[in-house]
Amino acid sequence: APEQAARMKKLQEQEKRQKVEFRKRMEQEVSQFIQATGEPRRRFQPMSKIERSILHDVAEVAGLTSFSFGDDEDSRYVMVFKKEFAPSDEELDAYRRGEEWDPARAEERRRLRELAAQQEEAELERGPTPAGPPNDYKDKYRHLIGSDAAKAAARTMEANKAYGCVPVANKRDTRSIEEAMNEIRAKKRLRQAEDE
Asked: What φ, ψ does residue 78 adopt, rounded to 5°?
């Protein structure tokens, strides 16, 4: 047990030394990045969670903006941005999707979104569109029925005696509603009297 404790202590000290060395190395790289005038951002190699947290801390102390990108733990990497070149939300979304940031394409997307918003606003100003079919069915069948077939049929239309218009003589029940209701009530009273 004492040997194992000594080994553990040695490993912890070694880990601590490695973290200190890593921090010094990152501080040097970040200071080189700050001094490089033509470089607005720098992408670091994929690293472990602890190393990423150290790098984020170093960037924050140096007055830089840093973000981690990548899907799984093995491929996550850190990008450090100078404050004057802080990334936009669109740029961050592109990096999160794993794409390279292209300002020209982003400008094109922004312009298309503005155009769509203007079109939507113009449609709202016009008011609601009337409900109805997009085309007239008569146009589809004009070659079969002609253009004035419906007008001619409407002029010669007569009521169909077998459908809809039934003369009173053909009806079975000629009573009014009140008479029919009174007769139903009388039958109920008679039935109740017989049951008693």
From this structure: -115, 140
Q: What is the DSSP string of 146-186?
A: -SSHHHHHHHT----TTTT---GGG-S----HHHHHHHHHH
pLDDT tens by residue, 114-133: 999 999 888 888 877 777 77
Cβ burial of 59 (10 Å; 0-12, 13-18, 19+) is: buried
Contacts of 9 (CB under 8 A, 6+ apart): none
**pTM for the whole structure:** 0.53
In the predicted structure, residue 41 carries a pLDDT above the cut 70? yes
Going by C-alpha positions, the residue among 54, 68, 59 that lies closest to residue 18 is 54
Could you tell me the domains of the chain? Answer: 2-87 (3.30.1370.50)
* C-alpha closest to that of 33 among 74, 69, 75, 65: 65
Residue 161's identity, in one-letter code, is K
d(CA 113, CA 102): 17
Match 């029925």 to its residue by tokens: 145
